[in-house]
């Protein structure tokens, strides 16, 4: 029989002896081996003498900041995962620590349950065998090997070897190792959700759930119950307790797509949930502790949304600790052949047809398309082609995708307009009038179609003095 693995070794750094003892006892009870230090210098001495699995450090130490320890550990490419304890309400410290490479942070006064769970996450290494006393999360599967070099099935699903895509994949593999919130930015259809999924699959949370939520698709009145859950009877028609997305994503990743569309009141509630790591279901007097990693995505310029006061600055700051930008397809044309091949294989598998081949000429023509709707437009195009083709050769129909967003400057004015504002107003007017006509002048439906809120469309209608038949009488109340 092989000898049982050694319990993980943890270094606790805090200058307050009482707190140090409390942390030490808590960790010893979990079966870890623990060492302690009261200052930066002492901590560094311990680190020079041996390797630890995790380091838990206070932010303020008598001879410097816990951040310095972090930077030194990262600078020397040591493998210890660092957890930083920051003062309550100090968002700056928490974000700074995560940006400096901390695995996670804890706010003081430290909740011991949370403390145990964060430490358990930190010491979970790829396929580490259990030591004599199994600690937490025993049912978790080991994460798929990601490999910093871009290997691993999770990253392979992100097709493309262009320099831009390689950069995205390297970043995914790197950020997957911590708990830091990630904001994925990119145009519609570029693969933001796929990137979020890859972060989850490469992380130590891969055995937990990945819950994807489209923030723009949930009616405002249901947001709170959908996010945080609801107790039976808390609203009309709620006949039983319901879990929210936060509870469903426990020990996993919560992917908040189209985060820029979250209404302001919900933004405050989300911020609180992230800060406190607790959520209160509707109609409940108690809060649920939730250990989730947040990955969000947007096609909007969130910094501009903050300036326009449509997005909370503090929430932006919290979500945007690490940013990954997924480039549009037009900036990585080299990926087209590999993408076509992978998409065609997937489409053929789904429709149980042989994989059709794409002629060089077809590929060339595809490469000439604007593909403003990015990979999703390419996928739609190939879907149509497979559905319509009769032989083994694929014939692509290059009608523009009706769902694709307009390409900048196309079919725009050939010349530079003499009055840009007037020209833009005219374009906006025509689009609004068309959307309103198509929806029978239902402003809510028109707004939804244009990705606007009702308030935004009302503002634009008023600014451009667009009148509708029957006008105000036709307005919908929502
Ligand atoms: N690099 C890629 N390799 C393989 N498939 C991809 C890639 N990028 C995107 N796709 C596919 O394209 C489609 C759109 O991707 P995804 O939903 O991730 O985009 P998105 O940026 O999240 O879009 P939206 O902003 O509209 O939500 C999906 O079917 C996805 O699997």
CATH architecture of the largest domain: 3-Layer(aba) Sandwich
Please tally the β strands and state the result.
Answer: 14
* Bound molecule types: adenosine-5'-triphosphate
Q: Span from first to last CA?
A: 68 Å
Percent helix, as a range, is: 40-55%
Q: Report the structural category.
A: alpha/beta
How are the strands of the largest sheet arranged? Answer: 2-1-3-6-7
> How many separate domains?
4
Would you state the CATH class of the largest domain? Alpha Beta
How much is the radius of gyration in Å?
A: 26 Å
InterPro entries: AAA+_ATPase (IPR003593), AAA_lid_NorR (IPR058031), CheY-like_superfamily (IPR011006), Homeodomain-like_sf (IPR009057), HTH_Fis (IPR002197), P-loop_NTPase (IPR027417), Sig_transdc_resp-reg_receiver (IPR001789), Sigma_54_int (IPR002078)
Protein name: Sigma-54-dependent Fis family transcriptional regulator
Pfam families: AAA_lid_14 (PF25601), HTH_8 (PF02954), Response_reg (PF00072), Sigma54_activat (PF00158)
GO molecular function: ATP binding; sequence-specific DNA binding
């Amino acid at each position: 029989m092989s000898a049982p693995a050694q319990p993980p070794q943890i270094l606790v750094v805090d200058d307050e002896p009482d707190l140090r003892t409390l942390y030490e006892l808590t960790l010893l009870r979990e079966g870890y081996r623990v060492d302690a230090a009261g200052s930066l210098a002492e901590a560094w001495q311990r680190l020079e003498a041996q390797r630890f699995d995790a380091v838990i450090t206070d932010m303020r130490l008598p001879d410097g900041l816990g951040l310095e320890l972090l930077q030194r550990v990262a600078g020397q490419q040591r493998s210890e995962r660092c957890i930083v304890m920051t003062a309550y309400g100090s968002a700056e410290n928490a974000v700074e620590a995560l940006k400096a490479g901390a695995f996670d942070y804890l706010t003081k006064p430290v909740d011991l349950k949370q403390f145990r769970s964060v430490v358990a996450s930190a010491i979970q290494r790829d396929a580490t065998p259990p030591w004599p006393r199994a600690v937490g999360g025993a049912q978790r599967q080991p994460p798929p090997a990601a490999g910093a070099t871009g290997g691993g099935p999770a990253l392979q699903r992100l097709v493309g070897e262009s320099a831009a895509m390689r950069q995205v994949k390297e970043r995914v593999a790197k950020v997957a190792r911590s708990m830091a919130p990630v904001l994925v930015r990119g145009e519609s259809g570029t693969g933001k959700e796929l990137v979020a999924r890859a972060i989850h699959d490469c992380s130590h949370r891969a055995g937990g759930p990945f819950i994807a939520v489209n923030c723009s698709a949930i009616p405002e009145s249901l947001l709170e119950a959908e996010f945080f859950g609801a107790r039976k009877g808390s609203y009309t028609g709620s006949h039983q307790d319901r879990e929210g997305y936060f509870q469903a994503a426990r020990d996993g990743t919560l992917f908040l797509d189209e985060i820029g569309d979250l209404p302001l009141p919900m933004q405050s509630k989300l911020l609180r949930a992230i800060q406190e790591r607790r959520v209160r279901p509707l109609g409940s007097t108690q809060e649920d502790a939730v250990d989730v990693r947040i990955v969000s995505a947007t096609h909007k310029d969130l910094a501009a949304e903050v300036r326009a006061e449509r997005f909370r600055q503090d929430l932006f700051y919290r979500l945007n600790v690490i940013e990954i930008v997924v480039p549009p397809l037009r900036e990585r044309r080299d990926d087209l052949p590999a993408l076509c091949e992978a998409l065609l294989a997937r489409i053929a598998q789904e429709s149980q047809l042989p994989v059709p081949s794409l002629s060089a000429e077809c590929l060339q023509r595809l490469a000439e398309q604007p593909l403003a709707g990015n990979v999703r437009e390419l996928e739609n195009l190939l879907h149509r082609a497979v559905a319509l083709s009769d032989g083994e050769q694929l014939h692509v129909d290059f009608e523009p995708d009706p769902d694709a967003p307009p390409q900048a400057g196309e079919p725009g004015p050939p010349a530079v307009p003499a009055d840009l504002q007037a020209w833009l107003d005219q374009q906006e007017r025509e689009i609004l009038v068309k959307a309103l006509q198509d929806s029978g002048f239902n402003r809510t439906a028109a707004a939804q179609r244009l990705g606007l809120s009702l308030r935004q469309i009302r503002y634009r209608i008023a600014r451009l003095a667009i009148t509708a038949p029957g006008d105000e009488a036709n307005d919908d109340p929502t």
